[in-house]
Design goal:
The protein has about 325 residues and is an alpha+beta fold. The chain has helices spanning about 1-30, 40-45, 50-60, 65-70, 80-90, 100-110, 180-190, 195-200, 210, 230-240, 250-260; strands at about 75-80, 110-115, 145, 150, 155-165, 170-175, 225-230, 260-265, 275-280, 285-290, 295, 300-310, 315-320. The strands form two sheets. A seven-stranded mixed beta sheet has the order 8-7-13-12-11-10-9. A six-stranded mixed beta sheet has the order 2-1-6-5-4-3. Strand 5 (about 155-165) and strand 6 (about 170-175) form a beta hairpin. The longest helix has 27 residues, at about 1-30. The radius of gyration is 29 Å and the shape is elongated.
Length: about 325
């Protein structure tokens, strides 16, 4: 009898152990959901970004999937007020009125590969967006100005920086960053302030701003612009004995500015070579690359190219240190 009770007790223990093992095994099959906080999760959970979320869902190209799982990315995120201002400025009533391809590229122009905290940003063109709405299919340049906070392309200011999410960083901005033209960068970059003044002088008989704002795919775009920095103009005025641009007559200024723009071509630095003749709107200049990229005009004035491949939606800018003359 005792032996039977002992066997019964042993059997009971085995039953309990087996049940426990089965229970644990079944529990192991239940999927464990780990909460996430991706870029898309953050946008979805913030009501002030409902229009950004709608734009992401409306756009093509799998942007939501990319920002939900890939990374790391840095996103400059416009709030609802920024999108309303964008729609109004471009004569759209709703996001659904914006051509899907355009909307997609505009959104991609707010995204940068990598994790760029505000403290790591510096003034210049060091970063490019994921937008490829350019004549060459290259990534779009962004001009960052950190002189007073962080301003992108002269139009959009970071209002809240360094919001950390699982797959990157979000910076809230107060305006939608549109697709920049070569004029956008000329206006935004203070190194081109005298060039901006020259291009917009009221007495010019050629509409430089209007022409250089022409959308890619529409004649005479795209453009290659060799943009003199401010010091180049300062030295030119000294050479001419002039105190300001106002001392230069319209025909001379007009002809000079045309020497810095090429129509119908998006020529990147890699496309330059020794002895290459470049036909600008005002005449021919010669490129050389040995010993550093330079441009030489008909007067044998040699200008160094000091910055290359600032890529816009309708062309590319190369900064130069001497004004070219006809």
């Amino acid at each position: 009898m005792k032996k039977f009770k002992k066997l019964l007790k042993t059997a009971f223990i085995l039953m309990v152990s087996t049940a426990t093992l089965i229970s644990c095994s079944e529990d192991d099959k239940i999927p464990i959901v780990i909460p996430t906080n991706s870029i898309v999760d953050f946008v979805s959970s913030n009501s002030d970004y409902s229009l950004l979320l709608e734009a992401l869902q409306t756009a093509d190209g799998g942007i939501v999937e990319t920002l939900n799982s890939g990374g790391p990315f840095t996103v400059f995120a416009p709030n609802n007020a920024a999108f309303r201002a964008f729609l109004s400025a471009n004569n759209f009533d709703y996001l659904s009125d914006v051509p899907t391809a355009m909307l997609s590229q505009i959104l991609l122009n707010h995204v940068v590969g990598g994790n760029a905290l505000a403290a790591s940003l510096s003034t210049g063109y060091d970063i490019k967006s994921l937008s490829t709405a350019t004549p060459s299919g290259a990534n779009m340049s962004l001009y960052i100005n950190t002189a007073d906070g962080v301003v992108i392309n002269g139009v959009s200011t970071v209002t809240t920086a360094d919001v950390s999410v699982d797959n990157g960083t979000i910076h809230a901005v107060d305006a939608v960053i549109g697709l920049p033209t070569v004029v956008t960068f000329a206006v935004a970059d203070p190194n081109f302030s005298i060039l901006k003044t020259a291009l917009t002088r009221a007495d010019l008989t050629f509409d430089f701003v209007g022409t250089l704002s022409t959308a890619n795919g529409t004649d005479p775009a795209p453009f290659t612009v060799f943009a003199p920095i401010d010091q180049a103009f300062v030295e030119l005025l000294e050479d001419l004995g002039a105190s300001s641009l106002d001392d230069i007559d319209e025909p001379t200024l007009n002809a000079t500015l045309k020497m810095h723009a090429v129509a119908g071509a998006n020529v990147l630095a890699a496309g330059l070579s020794d002895g290459l003749t470049i036909s600008t709107l005002g005449g021919d200049i010669t490129a050389n690359v040995t010993g550093g990229a330079t441009l030489t005009d008909a007067n044998n004035r040699v200008s160094q190219i000091v910055a290359v491949d600032v890529q816009a939606s309708n062309g590319v800018i190369h900064a130069i240190d001497k004004v070219l003359l006809k």
